[in-house]
Amino acid sequence: MIKKFVNYMTRKFIDTGIIERDDDEVFAYGLEIITSASINTIFALIIGTVMGRFIESIIFLVSFCIIRQFCGGYHADSNRKCIISFNSIFAISIILGSIIDIEKFSLFFIILTVMNTVSIFVLAPVCHINNPLSNEEYKSNKFKSRLISMFICIVIIIGVQLNLDKYIIYSCLALTWVNLLMIILKISNIIRGKKYEKSSS
């Protein structure tokens, strides 16, 4: 559905002279990303509103999105899978944030946040083995991922001290998911690399 919409809009923009035909692939790729992200955000906000967690949804989405783009990690291979997987992650996070007694586990979430931050410092950015970043992109993303993860880590620790546990847990969960997606792709890259070495030997 998204592909059809993107292709239709791309043709329209070419026919009206807004973009050149030579730029159709770049435009289509950008529009596809924007459309997919918009659908994910809309669905997430609907889920959060229905569950009575609108503010918490905003906190999760902001925390997740601002660091995810620089850390990399596993991505679904189709828009449908992307929408399903992201909104599943989001729904699980909202449910966990709603049922966990945050005050009893505040120390655990601080430790978890620090562990995730350290992992991001070491691993990020993680991109697909067949789609590596340029040297400049890698350095830029590493710096930004470290800076943002440190900022989120500090906000979470301060939030615990200010008894804002019911809100900061969503930032912690967002950081945890970003870290897990990085680790999943990292392991996948290692497996692919070993398979390639075996097949080429």
TrEMBL record:
The chain crosses the membrane at residues 26-48, 54-71, 83-100, 106-126, 147-162, 168-188. Keywords: Cell membrane, Hydrolase, Membrane, Protease, Quorum sensing, Transmembrane, Transmembrane helix. InterPro entries: AgrB. It comes from the Bacteria. The keyword Protease applies. It holds the Pfam family AgrB. This is Accessory gene regulator B family protein.
